Amino acid sequence: MAAKRDATLEAMIEEATVDAYGEDEELTGLFTMLEEHLAVPFSTTVLGVEVTVRKLDLTGDAIVAICSRGRARQRIDLLDLPLPSPPPDGAVWIDAYRYWAGR
Q1: How far is CA 37 from the centre of its chain?
Q2: Per-residue pLDDT for the chain (103 aa), expressed as one digit of tens each?
Q3: Is 56 helix (H, G, I), strand (E, B) or coil?
């Protein structure tokens, strides 16, 4: 089962990075797919506090979630963001990003 999941994630990464040259362009490709497919906003819990993921942002070397609670805003690396159950539509692209980052 894990091999099939890995193959699926590899295919998604290939789709996102087909024209990319280098890690920076690969990251941009994955960010683009996340922007297109991940349903935001969505709620999740960070350190026991419910927050709303409003959007994603691409920093120099990572993709971050812009989270809010009331007027407070915080950037959380997408690699560290806990996902709710059930996850939002398009969350499989977060899985693909995490798989890519761990290679």
Answers
A1: 10
A2: 677 888 999 999 999 999 989 999 999 999 999 999 999 999 999 999 999 999 999 998 999 999 999 999 999 999 999 999 999 999 999 999 999 999 7
A3: strand
Q: CA torsion angle for 51, 52, 53, 55 (degrees, to 10)? A: -140
The domain segmentation of the chain, as residue ranges, is 2-101
What sign results for the dihedral spanned by CA atoms 27, 32, 38, 39? positive
The answer to whether 37 touches 87, Cβ cutoff 8 Å, is no
Among candidate residues 54, 56, 60, 48, the one with its CA nearest the CA of residue 72: 54
Give the pLDDT score at 5.
Answer: 84
Which residue type does 101 have? Answer: A
Alpha-carbon distance 83 to 33, whole Å?
18
Cα(first)–Cα(last) distance of the chain, in Å? 19
Contacts of 73 (CB under 8 A, 6+ apart): 66, 67
